């Protein structure tokens, strides 16, 4: 049986020059928290499916519910989360509310994630 890869150093040696660089470039804790929260939003396949629909067109909740074979209530719940995290935006037209991607960053985040998982 092969030996498991060690996850610890064999000796305790602090590399001060590296730590200075890391400490100088590390974002504030609040920014790291916000980033982690943003990535949690992408951790739900229903929200990812909604975003893929929105890549193609601006749609209302009725259309999303139909294409994803879900209830309007379930779609609305997920859209609320996406909107709170500034990933989608909405506009009212008469009695309907249409949803679209908030900006091009959303498409870029998903595209880079897909590239990453498709790597060998």
Brief overview, please?
The chain has about 120 residues and is mainly alpha-helical. It contains 6 helices and 3 strands.
Comma- or semicolon-separated keywords:
120 residues; 3-stranded antiparallel β-sheet; 6 helices; mainly alpha; Arc Repressor Mutant, subunit A
Fourth CATH level, the homologous superfamily of the domain at 58-120: Winged helix-like DNA-binding domain superfamily/Winged helix DNA-binding domain
CATH architecture field of the domain at 58-120: Orthogonal Bundle
Tell me roughly what share of residues is in helical segments.
55-70%
> For the CA atoms, what is the radius of gyration?
21 Å
Terminal-residue CA separation: 25 Å
Order of helices and strands: HHHEHHEEH
Q: What is the mean pLDDT?
A: 92
Beta percentage is 5-15%
Spatial arrangement of strands, main beta sheet: 1-3-2
Per-chain topology:
Layout: H1 16-25, H2 29-41, H3 45-56, E1 59-60, H4 61-68, H5 72-84, E2 88-93, E3 96-101, H6 104-118
Antiparallel strand pairs: 1-3, 2-3
Overall description:
There is one protein chain. The chain is mainly alpha-helical. The chain has a domain at 58-120: Arc Repressor Mutant, subunit A (Orthogonal Bundle). The protein is built from six helices and three strands, in the order H-H-H-E-H-H-E-E-H. The chain has helices spanning 16-25, 29-41, 45-56, 61-68, 72-84, 104-118, and strands spanning 59-60, 88-93, 96-101. A three-stranded antiparallel sheet has the order 1-3-2. It is elongated and about 65 Å long. The mean pLDDT is 92.
């Amino acid at each position: 049986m092969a030996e498991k890869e060690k996850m610890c150093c064999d000796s305790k040696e602090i590399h001060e020059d590296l730590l200075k660089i890391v400490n100088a470039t590390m974002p504030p804790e609040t920014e790291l928290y916000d980033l982690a929260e943003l990535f949690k939003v992408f951790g739900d396949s229903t929200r990812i499916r909604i975003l893929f629909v929105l890549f193609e067109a601006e749609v209302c909740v009725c259309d999303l519910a139909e294409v994803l074979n879900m209830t309007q209530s379930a779609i609305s719940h997920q859209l609320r989360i996406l909107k709170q995290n500034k990933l989608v935006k909405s506009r009212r037209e008469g009695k309907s509310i249409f949803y679209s991607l908030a900006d091009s960053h959303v498409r870029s985040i998903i595209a880079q994630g897909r590239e990453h998982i498709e790597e060998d």
